[in-house]
Amino acid sequence: VQLQASGGGLVQAGGSLRLSCADSGRTFSTPVMGWFRQAPGKEREFVAAINWSGGSTYYVDSVKGRFTISRDNAKNTVYLSMNSLKPEDTAVYYCAASHSGSYYPDMYWNYWGKGAQVTVSS
Q1: Among 103, 83, 119, 82, which Cα is nearest to 32's?
Q2: SS3 helix, strand, coil % of the chain, rounded to 5?
Q3: 96: which strand partners?
Q4: Which residue of 5, 43, 79, 100 has the fewest C-beta atoms within 10 A of its own C-beta?
């Protein structure tokens, strides 16, 4: 599994971005995929997760109703669609993958991708 996030950039508050995370190793056999973020001076925090089928998704409260996680297993890719962006969403976003069969808080993530910078200006 080799994860690479893309799609970050600079956007004004209220705008939208979509992050993509592709598994260049083309295994994409990990049932649970997730997104995390780390803002300057802060700890990395969980943002969203999705199970293999895409039927179950999980979000941190601060992004519920604004962010949507999805996956396309045929393309070995997971997405994070971000709408109504706020300056406090500014962070480096990381995708991660786990062999766990289902998501649960504080679970172990086996693989991490390089981050994508998202900057939201006010």
Answers
A1: 103
A2: 5, 50, 45
A3: 34, 112
A4: 43
Are 3 and 80 spatial neighbours (Cβ–Cβ below 8 Å)? no
For strands 77-82 and 17-23, give the pairing. antiparallel
Nearest to 71 by CA among 90, 93, 47, 95: 95
Strands (E), 1-122: 3-6, 9-12, 17-23, 32-38, 45-50, 57-59, 67-72, 77-82, 91-98, 111-112, 116-121
Residues 115, 5: Cα–Cα separation, whole Å: 6
- The model's pLDDT over 38-74, given as tens digits with 9 standing for 90+, comes to 999 999 999 999 999 989 999 999 999 999 999 998 8
